[in-house]
Amino acid sequence: MPEPQLIPPRSGTAFLLRRGQRLKITDPQGEQVSDFVCFNLHDTAEYLSSGRTIDYAETIFLTAGHPFYSNRSNVMFEMVEDTVGRHDFLLTPCSADTFRIIYGHEHPHRGCFGNLSEALAPHGITPDQIPICFNIFMHVTVDGDTGKVGVLPPKSRAGDYVILEAKMDLIVGMTACSAEMSNNYAFKPIVYEILG
Fold first, then answer.
1. Rounded-to-integer distance, Cα 177 and Cα 188, Å
2. Reduced DSSP (H G I as helix, E B as strand, rest coil) percent helix, strand, coil of the chain, to 5
3. 8 Å CB contact between 134 and 50
4. Model confidence at 79: pLDDT above 70
5. What is the pLDDT of residues 157-176, one digit of tens each?
6. Is the pTM of this model over 0.90?
7. What CA–CA distance (Å, rounded) separates 87 from 60?
8. Which residue, among 111, 110, 104, has the nearest Cα to 183 in the 3D structure?
9. C-alpha atoms less than 13 angstroms from C-alpha of 86 in its C-beta half-sphere
């Protein structure tokens, strides 16, 4: 059984997750988001779809019991445990452009998008193939009248986790998110473990 792996603050990684394996993603210190994306190992044109998953679930608040669908409407994984219950599947991974446009940084960090691009490149996945990620532990609110989106501190506390079960062979990309607002203005690691 592989040992738990640590993703350092403001970085990312990619790895294979086989059908039937379970992936535990833990927030070891609390209030830290992890951007998660996956692709079909055998055909990377099939990828995790925010639109289809939300459409079929009829909710933007996805949690234990929900299947997550690809752009081809195949189930890629199911969330089987969730100690937090609030995550985001609306907002794009942060990028250098995010920091330039939203935060006004003149020398921006490459963000989760840049980290995922680097991590997924050895698997033949280009930056333009990276879709909206499932932002684990991210706390996003939507005003029902105006539609205004708010990014609040994550509800996750030290040791909170989710467990995902793969329903097909996957290439997974994950980060320890780089955006100040998403992580209550502190950057921390994320831990993941393949449970088998």
1. 8
2. 15, 40, 45
3. yes
4. yes
5. 999 999 999 999 999 999 99
6. yes
7. 9
8. 111
9. 15
Residue 195 vs residues 2, 96, 108, 125, 145: alpha-carbon distances, Å: 8, 34, 36, 25, 42
> Which residue in the block uniquely carries the two structure tokens 């840049």?
114
CB atoms within 10 A of CB 104: 8
* Type of residue found at 189: P
Closest alpha carbon to 16 in 88, 122, 114? 122
CA distance 73 to 93: 22
* Residue in the block written with tokens 């079909």: 40
Residue 125, both tokens: 């996945």
Which pair of structure tokens corresponds to residue 80? 């089987």
* Residue located via tokens 């933007």: 60
Query: Strand (E) positions, 101-169?
Result: 134-136, 139-142, 149-152, 160-166
Length of the chain: 196
Tokens of 88: 């985001």
Q: CA dihedral defined by 75, 79, 85, 90, rounded to 10 degrees?
A: -30
